[in-house]
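User: Just a sanity check before I run the rest of the batch. Below are the structure tokens for the first item. I only need the designed sequence back.
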């Protein structure tokens, strides 16, 4: 299918002109700007479903590397595309099912204990051909190669097809008012994060956010996260120092910004949000409040 036709279908699937479709929030931005953590928390607060599109590109990269295919060789593009088309990728986000946590405000959150906060954070597990690869896809090796994989046009089409299928399942479940503990059937809306969500995947999203943060701040946060998750430099080529992490993020951003197809770009109608001096809770509050504001306008 041609890229243009595919995107047209995707938009139709997610963006009919009627208000029966779920409210869509598109979050884009550079690496480690806080997209996925913020998106999950926004989804939890609002009872929306969540799709991490970066996880799809990471899965394809992990699968290619596992098969000994080097993504930095352009001649391997066909092999990587064939892999992308056949892989079965599933995301499972576990949300707190307590309805009151959807309405929690910053002051509630600040008064909660650390353990209780951690307990309430949603988590996403990623399954590749039914195997849990949530940690495998976050290694330094995968991060180093993922931008090359994401620059291959037919790989992007294969990923979009998979994202669209998941989104369509969400829409169907939401239309049927099915609410259960699965990430697939949370009513009312969808939050998706990535690099081209506001520009290509959900061009008619009800709210587009372009999340940025100073690259030094991003590197500090990413390094902390890698250490917390037990990154092991002996089995991974992660260089666990600030300078190397910052250089890796900046190189990936440059590749993502300058690729020909669906580059990382702020949508013209996106709201800018710089998280450098915000807490996670503050950035979530800002987005949740904006969703409430836009929804109340839509009702009137
Ligand atoms: N405002 C913030 N203050 C402190 N840490 C943050 C903030 N926003 C995000 N983080 C942390 O930064 C790291 C990177 O965020 P993440 O959501 O993974 O970014 P992205 O999805 O854009 O790569 C995570 O460990 C996250 O918890
Ligand atoms: N919509 C998307 C999402 C991710 N990607 C690619 O996938 C990579 C990994 O995305 P990610 O969101 O997991 O990366 P982090 O920002 O979490 O480090 C990005 O660097 C992009 O190359 C993309 O091209 N388009």
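Assistant: Here's the designed sequence for the first item:
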């Amino acid at each position: 299918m041609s890229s243009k036709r595919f995107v047209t279908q995707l938009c139709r699937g997610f963006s009919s002109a009627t208000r029966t479709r779920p409210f869509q929030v598109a979050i884009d931005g550079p690496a480690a700007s806080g997209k996925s953590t913020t998106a999950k928390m926004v989804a939890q607060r609002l009872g929306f479903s969540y799709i991490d599109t970066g996880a799809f590109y990471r899965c394809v990269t992990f699968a290619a590397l596992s098969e000994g295919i080097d993504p930095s060789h352009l001649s391997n593009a066909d092999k990587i595309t064939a892999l992308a088309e056949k892989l079965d990728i599933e995301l499972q986000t576990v949300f707190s099912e307590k309805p009151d946590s959807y309405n929690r405000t910053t002051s509630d959150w600040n008064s909660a204990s650390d353990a209780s906060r951690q307990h309430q954070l949603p988590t996403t597990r990623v399954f590749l051909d039914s195997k849990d690869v949530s940690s495998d896809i976050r290694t330094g090796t995968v991060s180093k190669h993922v931008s090359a994989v994401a620059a291959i046009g037919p790989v992007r089409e294969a990923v979009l097809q998979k994202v669209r299928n998941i989104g369509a399942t969400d829409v169907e479940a939401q239309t049927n008012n099915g609410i259960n503990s699965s990430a697939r059937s949370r009513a009312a809306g969808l939050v998706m994060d990535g690099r081209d969500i506001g520009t290509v995947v959900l061009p008619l999203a009800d709210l587009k956010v372009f999340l940025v943060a100073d690259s030094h701040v991003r590197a500090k946060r990413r390094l902390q996260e890698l250490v917390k998750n037990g990154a092991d430099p002996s089995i991974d080529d992660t260089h666990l120092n600030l300078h190397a992490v910052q250089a890796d993020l900046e190189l990936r951003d440059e590749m993502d910004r300058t690729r020909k197809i669906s580059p990382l770009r702020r949508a013209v109608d996106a709201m800018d949000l710089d998280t450098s001096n915000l807490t996670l809770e503050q950035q979530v509050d800002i987005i949740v409040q904006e969703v409430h504001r836009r929804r109340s306008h839509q009702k009137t």
